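G., the chain you wanted modeled:
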Amino acid sequence: HLTKYLLTGAGLPTAKFFVVDDVPVEDCPLGWPVIVKPATQDASVGVDQGSVVTNLERLNDRVAYLLDNYGPPVLIEEFIRGREFSIGLIEAPELRVLPVSEILFIDKDPDFWPIVTYDAKWKPGTRDYEATPPKYPARISPRLRNKLETLAKRAFRLLACRDYARVDFRVRGGKPYILEVNPNPDFSPIAGLSGGLDSAGISHAQFTVDLVQRALARGGKNAATARCSS
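Predicted structure as tokens:
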């Protein structure tokens, strides 16, 4: 949640939010619905279809559940309806923005929230996973692409990211909102960042080699002659 304060302080658009450490929550100034997340987790841990709530009773139930399972604080955010995009950024060595990807929400059941849950990220075969296929690259206008790329670069620099990162957005009425800045996203061959690399014509193997070489160089080692030790 500290990232949210930094983004807000820098004037970068992000969903309205507040943080709580206990229940009951007496009021919700954001309106409804809101999405409720553990503030100290990542990778959608603690996020499921019950994360989006539409009244104060359900909000308190969800906050209590997260406090019991993950501890304080709990992040409560305005739920932004709209399309969801991600942008990977890499330093190669200059900062480079990878093609924009989109999460497609294809399950149109009105009782099924269009969000990227833990299951959607990590559990193939589940309803959440099958309902959120990524599209590389996203079909968007040049104007929107420019907005997303500009904000992603600003966020990368604001948070002093290094080597690679990913920035996630929701877009409502043509306006992007930063959902998350991940300074250490998964870049396994099937991960979102790797999809962006592939769209840009960069092999996963070459990116990994370049990453290791830059790290060795920062440590004062000769990247060309360094050897792994067991």
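The two ends are 38 Å apart (CA to CA).

Shout if anything looks off.
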